[in-house]
Structure formats: structure tokens, C-alpha cells
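Sample entry was shown:

___
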Amino acid sequence: MMRNRLRRAVATSSAGVFLLAMGAQATSAQAAPADSHIPSACGDRRPQEADPGSYGMQLDGSFRHPGLTPAGEERHSFPGGARDLFPATKGYDPRSYTEGPVKVEAAYRGPDFTPDYFHTWQNVVDFGGRRYLFQYDRSEARVYDVTDVRKVTIVERLSRSDVDVPYGENPELRDGKDWKAHDYWGASTIQWNARLKAYVMVQSFEQKRQVGELGDAPGRTKFENPEGVARLRATPGLKGFKVYRLDGPRKKDWKLLSTVTTDSTVANPLDSRPESTPQQGSGSLDVPYYIGEKYLFLAAAPRDDWGNTEVPTYLYSAGYQAWDLSDPAKPRKLGEWHRPGQVRGEEAEYRKDPRCGNRTSWMGARMPLFFPKPVEHGGKIAFAALGGFGLSVLDVSDPANMKEISHLSLPMSVGGTEADNVDVSQYERTGMIYVSGYPLGEDCYEPYKDVFQVDVRDPARPRVVGALPRPKPPAGAKFTDYCQRGGSFGPKRTGYYTSPGDPRQGLLPYAFYNAGVQFYDVRDVRRPRVAAQFVPPGYSPAVPDYALGNQTHGIYVEWDRKIVWVFTNDGVYALSSRLLGRPNLEAPRTPFRNSAL
């Protein structure tokens, strides 16, 4: 089965050993792409497919991962794998499992609870004594009343399904019943602003990462398709962020305060005319960092020449920008930072990375900076997860002049994303952060994605000191390794910093794709362990074939009510566990205003 590449984020891969696997296909003498911002410093070193005999089930019931794979999402069956174990359900396990102290309080399955099969963002707001959960991915969105965890109701549906366009054309360029052209619900942070006495929502706006102009197939990638690249460069639309005041849970309650471009070539970023004028760079990626006070930090490539990334269907290598949001109606840029090698003209540094030329690796940020303590409250450092470029520790005490304190090159993992998420919830107690990428291939056709324990007690000398244990199938499962269950296997993220209440010390709940939610006990940093797991069904006839492999791809933790919301390709689940504490399944005792500070 070939999954629809236009519906999913592109895979990354790194290649510390790629020259051993290239053979005659690799060359560094190919002509540079017509677009000068497409990297060509190392030519074409895309890895070949892995030898089927080099990976698969072992005699002891474990799985041996391939050491090197190119980007791609085709299924890669192996003897004893999901196609053999679950033939009646298209090679996916239809069962659900719970192990350890975890309870399913409610399950909501079906299209009303899956605005997008591959990925959604979430937020929580409180109005009038009731709690609302937002779930959305650009034009597809839902607003739920989750005051009673066991009786969730839908209060709004938003869609662009009424816009009919030819295959490959972007429907966001046209008006629909719920959205104007170029508008959608960008990945958001929502925090209480004391001056306005209202929630402020900052939404990221960027060019779609999956577009009809580019693809993974030969001749369709950015390296070989200058016409497609040129069309993307010429497409108008906002690349930046919007700031809203929220006076209620529905879209009609949003009040637009400002529209801002991250394009550094624009003279006035608050007046960029995005509906008619093409903008440079990536725009703001994923969830911005903002606590409702002065500073906003976001991941962005501010110009087209920030483009040294190998991923074949994406044009930008994002660094970071800092903004003054003292007045949400008039954001003011303070500064920006990138690692040497990300920008055209820095090819000498770029060539030092063994991923250079592999035409698969995501190089640069996807998420904003990760802060153990906000700058407004005395925080001085932040962690930068830069994909294949690794992990950097930044001095952010002066946001206008961010500086690198230290850098850590992480073990390479080909393919899948690298250095995507940093969990900082345990840092002040232990000095440990938890750094991970995530899988994009199916049937474990890529190296396993470890969650690295990184000791940063000395910010000038970060070092990998361990990894969280690999999840094991629960008792009674038909398989001995999650690679046999069908779909992707590996960590995604531990939720959001934009969540109510204080994260529990010693506990890390991870969304883990076909391994559901894994609850890690990290109280003893020398002996982390899985304390509980919830694994939802891996197959539903309601899910289209191209999305069956993308199972548990997100969680949102209400730390105040002790509830974990689980987001899958087939719906939403609400979990409780004594690991979090006694749950409150009714109205929160106090409204959520700002995330843990």
C-alpha cells in the first residue's frame, strides 16, 4: 500500500554510513538545481533501499531494525510481521490493550472526533465554568465541551470540504463556508493576558508542507522540479502568525488583533498584504511559545536562502525568532538565530554534516524553543531541537541577541524525523531533558527512534546519558514486538507546554503511534521504566487505507484534572491513572489561565 504523500509530513533520514550503501547511484557531480536556494553542496547521496535480509524478526522474538533507509511510506512486509499476523484486517492489529494502572474513562470514535486522520493540534480554554477542547488541523476543526469527561459534546465543526478543486490544487486559496481564502486554524498557543483580561491566541501560518507541486517520486522532488519550486515561491499567502483575542470557545468569538509576517525582507511586518503578495521563508512552524506576558518565540526561516535541508518536498531550514508581544496588537521583532550551515553561503559548515546530500533528512527546527523557565520569570536558557542538525543550548537572557552556549550532535537515525521534541518538565528537579524524533515509515522500516536522556546540569556540556526503555507488548498480545503490529512505531511527543496545571514530577506520558500511550516512570533517572500503557485498536474500517498506519499521534494532558486525552486516526480517548493522581471528571475547580510557569 502506498500512502497519500500529500496528506502527511515528509520523512527525514540521516546517513552516517550512507557512503557504504550508495553504490553506483550516488554522485556529487550532478548539476545544481535551477533554484539557487535548493542545497547542492553534496550532490545526490540518497540511500538505497535496505537489504530485506538485514532486518526483521530475530530468534529471541525481538526485531532488528534496518540501519539505513530512504524516505518513503510504502509498507515493507517481513516474515512474521503484521501482514502475516493480521491478514483479515489489512495487516493491522484490531485489538486494544491496557496494562498497569490506567483506565479508559471515555472513548469517542468516528469522523466527528477525527478532523484529520494524520495529525491534529489541541488546546483547552475555560468559559463560564465550562471547559472546551479544541482539535484542529488547518481548515478541519472541532470544538468540544469536555466539562463532563464522560459526556463530551460537539459545539462547532469547521471544514473546507465544500471547496471543490482539481487534484493537487490547494483549496485554501479559495473561499469556503467556514474560511476565507488563505485563512485556516494554525497551530496555536493560547494563554491568559492579564492586561487584556482575556485569552490571547497566537496562530502559526505557513505554507503547506504537503503540496501538489512537489513529491518524493523521481522528477517531482525539489531537486529535480524547478517549475514546481517556482510555483511555490510565487504563491501568495501569509507566512508568519496571527494574534487573536478569544471571548468565547467558537470561531465567531475570535477577534483579530494583528497579522504578522516572519519574512525579514518586508519593511513593515504588520502590513505585508499576504493575500496578493508572495512572501519569503517558511512562516511560523508548529506551536509558538508564549505565556501571556512579554515574549513570543517561534520557529521560522525568515528568507528563502534559509534552505539547507535535505527533505525532498520542503524548501526551508527553520531557525528561531523572538518577538515582543507586550501589545498583542503591535508585535515587534527582537531578533533571530540559526545554526551555521542552515543558510545559503554556509556550505562549508553544511558539508560537515554526514546527512548532507542524502535527500531525505529534515534539517532545522519544527517546534519552537523549549524553556525550562520563562524568560519573564528569570529563565536564561532554552533548548533548540534542530532535526538533523541536533540539539543546541541557547542563552536567551537577551531575546534580541540569542546565543549558542553548546551543541550536541545526536546519534543518526535514517529515516524518520530527528531532534523534534524536547521534554523539559523534569529539568529543574534532575537536570535531565528528554529528546526525540519520531517515525514516519511503516513496519519499522527505519531505525528505532530512541528518547534520549540528556544531562544538561552543566548547560555548556550536554551529554547523552541514556534512553527510555523500548515499549514491550502487553501480556496476551499476539506479537512479541510492536514492529509486528502494523503501522508506525516510536515516540511522538509528551503533549504540550500549553496545558493546565503542573506536570507531575517523575512521570512522562508519551504518544507512541502503534504502541498507544506509554507512561514512563523517571523518578529514578538511572532506571526509567514503563509503568503503564494504553494501546487503542490499530484497525478500524472507518479509517481509509492510506491513514491506517498513523495510529496514536498525539496526547493532551489536563494536569489539573488528571486526565490524558489521546488522539488517534480513529477518534479520541480520555484516560485516568493513579500515576497522575485522582481524576476530576467534572468541571475544573479553577479555570485554566496560563500554563505552568
Remarks:
- The radius of gyration is 22 Å.
- Confidence is low (pLDDT under 50) at residues 1-29.
